[in-house]
Amino acid sequence: MAAGFSLPSARERTPLAEILLDHIRSEGPIPFSEYMRACLYHPEHGYYAQAEARRFADYYTSPDVHPVFGRLVARQLAEMWERLGRPAEFTALEGGAGTGRLAAHILDFAERALPEFFGALRYVAVESSEARRAMQAQSIGRHLGAGRAESRAALPQRIPAGCVFSNELMDAMPVDRLVHSAQGLREIFVGEREGWFVEVTALPHSPRAAAYFARQGVTFAEGQQAEAALEACEWIEETGRRLERGFVMTIDYGHEAPELYNTRHMRGTLLAYRDHQVSEQFYGAPGLQDLTAHVSFTSLDLWGRNAGLERTGLASQTRFLLALGRANEFGDVYDEGQTETERLRARLKLKTLIYPEGMGETFQVFIQHKGLAAPALTGLSEL
């Protein structure tokens, strides 16, 4: 290992920090992906084991802004059902379903506005956090009780027909961090010095990281850092294997490889979120802040092909929502009986979802298909 270099001064000695430091003292420096996995998914002290209120203190997602996001996703799912020939059972599987907020928006809207589709719909909310999975009983309890929805910790072994989709799941999958030096590609490990975390560089712990970049045709400038999202690739490949016919839809922030790994991202894209502040204080409060890295849609495309997934298309969230909403002039944004003031508020929230300065151009929608000819989907259509 190379010598460690100094890190930002923020230090909050959380219970997870002590666990990780003890482990590093005993076993030596660990890959960043191991550190990130513990920070996010440790069953007791990980970020996603905390109460949902903790997340609201740090950031919002599109379903938090307004139910119209889920309602338009429901319309796209219904069209996918149509493209598959209206199977008697259509599985809508949400990866990283959290407490079930998006699930509730989709199920409630489909029941009310898309009755034929709802008759075939089987919703599977997949969430690894036991605490957040337990909260799904509050958001989608009625649908769980009716057998229309299922809550589980992992993907089912097979998905005969349907769509596996996620919203801000891939960006929270653990990544390895690498840097291109005069000696070639080196990996950034997490070590310990004087009672706190330090970063140390060494040869990559696995050849898979170099292969990840090579397959995407990535070349680096000297000193450039980047994240290898190997777990996201494993997830998309395994999902593709279990899906027999249908779609995979990934909604997240990211880029294709040429843009994601260019010199505008010399320090990579990894960020920490806490109290609605964004920083590079990755080690400041292990377990009490979110850690994310931008998604390479090129990698999802390439690794998905290993399991028979084909590229359907990529669109910004702006284009996706506008294309789906224009059919009824965004009537889905309103609830029955709303006052004009309430309708105005709803329109303002819609703008947050679609305007470039809001979430509209930050998030992308990447769709893949399997077992059917290249389908035309409204959410990917040109405006």
Characterise the protein shown here:
- This protein is of the alpha/beta class.
- The chain has two domains: 15-57 and 173-234 and 256-292, Rossmann fold; 62-167 and 309-380, Rossmann fold (3-Layer(aba) Sandwich), CATH 3.40.50.12710.
- Helices cover 37% and strands 25% of the residues.
- A hairpin with a 2-residue loop joins strand 7 (184-193) and strand 8 (196-202).
- Helix 10 packs across helix 12.
- The radius of gyration is 21 Å and the shape is globular.
Beta-strand portion reads 15-25%
Tally of helical runs: 14
- Tell how many strands the DSSP assignment holds: 16
| First-to-last CA distance | 52 Å
What CATH architecture of the largest domain would you give? 3-Layer(aba) Sandwich
Write the layout of secondary structure elements.
Elements lengths: L14 H13 L2 E2 H10 L10 H7 L3 H4 L2 H16 L6 E6 L5 H13 L1 H6 E6 L3 H16 L3 E4 L6 E9 L8 E6 L2 E10 L2 E7 L5 H8 L9 E4 L1 H13 E13 L1 H4 L10 E4 L2 E3 L10 E3 L2 E2 H9 L4 E7 H9 L14 H15 L8 E8 L13
Parallel strand pairs: 2-3, 2-5, 3-4, 5-10, 10-14
Antiparallel strand pairs: 1-7, 6-7, 6-9, 7-8, 10-16, 11-12, 11-13, 15-16
Helix pairs in contact: 5-6, 6-8, 10-12
